[in-house]
Amino acid sequence: MARRKKIYEGKAKILYEGPEPGTLVQYFKDDATAFNAEKRDVIDGKGVLNNRLSEFFMVGLNSIGVPTHFLKRLNMREQLVRQCEIIPLEVIVRNFAAGTMAKRLGIEEGTPLPRPIVEYCYKDDKLGDPLVTEEHIAAFGWASQQDMDDILSLALRVNDFMSGLMYGVGIKLVDFKIEIGRFYDGDFQRLIVADEISPDSCRLWDIETGRKLDKDVFRRDLGNLADAYTEVARRLGVMPQNATPMEKPKLIN
Length: 253
Ligand code: 5GP
Fold this sequence. Notes:
Blueprint: E1 6-9, E2 13-17, E3 23-28, E4 31-34, E5 39-42, H1 46-63, E6 70-73, E7 78-82, E8 85-86, E9 89-96, H2 99-105, E10 112-122, E11 131-132, H3 134-139, H4 145-167, E12 171-185, E13 188-194, E14 202-206, H5 216-219, H6 225-236
Antiparallel strand pairs: 1-2, 2-3, 3-7, 4-5, 6-7, 8-12, 9-10, 9-12, 10-11, 12-13, 12-14
């Protein structure tokens, strides 16, 4: 059997050439990294959970008319996605102060924000994804003014959808990051939600207890990451029967 052509390997995912032109296969790894890959580990089952969760969120977004790159899930770790040109920005939406914003502005983590705040970071690992303004984005030509209007609208629609979904299962959507891709539909360019939406890229706190159910569990050594992601999947009803992270087989003698 011919080997698949790898297009790109990131910290948590691999992209392979897809079966049809204009498609890619997105493979979810078990690798977890934080602080620009200074902290790393392999978390059994994380890739399976994120594949399922990202599918769940993207299918929901597609169904309410928010376009995403997701086409279909292929197996436990892979999904078929539309090939697109990733805009080199991390689009962050915040509902409560946390993480870098809490630190930068000296606001206590968990403080509700007067309205959702959207931030942009320039995607560059070597620079540590620095925060940029719309001035930088326009001046360096990363996105046009029309793109920025569309990106803001997509980001806020994703926030409304995700906040409501999470609230319904007792989880507060503190903040999240999305990536946006350009996709050419004949002569027209459309912007779509790409990459993944999962507990790797969101902050999710239990409403009652404040328990963290996201990648901060790994970043801040707060317990078992797969358990936290499994809890999110269980509450949303997307936990596949047989996908409970299994222990690796033990070798006998
Ligand atoms: P912060 O800027 O506070 O570190 O992150 C804000 C939100 O965006 C958090 O939900 C965080 O998980 C997400 N985020 C920011 N940068 C990255 C990144 O490089 N990778 C991932 N997976 N999520 C990120």
